[in-house]
Write a structure and sequence with these properties.
Length: 251
Amino acid sequence: MRDGIVYGALVGVGFNWFEAALYVAQGYAETGVPPYGLQLGGRYALLGLGGHAMSTGIFGAFLGIAMQTRRRWIRILAPIAGCVLAIGAHMVNNALPLVAALAAGAAGKPPAASDPLDMGFLPAFVDSSLLELAIFLPFLLLTALALWRSGVRERSVVREELAGEVGRAVSAGEYAEIVADRVLRTRRIDPLRPRASAALVNAQHELAFRKRRVRHEGRDPDRDRLALAWREEIWRLRAVVSAPPTAGLAF
């Protein structure tokens, strides 16, 4: 699920970059003034976590749910629910200017005298962040909950599948760290070789996820070629991590 959120959000970030440039060019063509501050500040409110990135991230999360479950009805309904929520979030995003105008009118504030195209990045960023935080709070909480649940599930899969790998792909000390792993912690095997250590940890996790997928398909993980390939990669990386410092530079 977490991969779905990340990849989905990246799709929204990429679209945001394209659309921001498009509207800056459109504003310059219409007025002769490129609205960099308004477009970049407003579109990257909440550090880019709102708007398109949030919408596509929600859809990606529900795609991840569909990929993880073995229940057919969830596999069918989860993408539909995610799409509906993403469309709803985007509709709310498009309604923000109207909401802001109605709120200002209800408060008795006159329309802004200055041209919004002249708005700087910081005022646009702060105003849009506060507005999006208030309106998108349920969607942001849903995304945070999906990320948390995804992390819990992934750590559970890693613990269960690597329990049988102690002495092969995982040492006893490494498995103790896996059992003790919690949110907001990054497991490292050798802090002196961060790249090799991170690659080794990633290979162990990929082995765990591959074993779980093969097991769900009713096959033997010990005979799966990809699982065997991940074990060989773990052994190779183990040699890099265990090598003297000068030899480790080759990684």
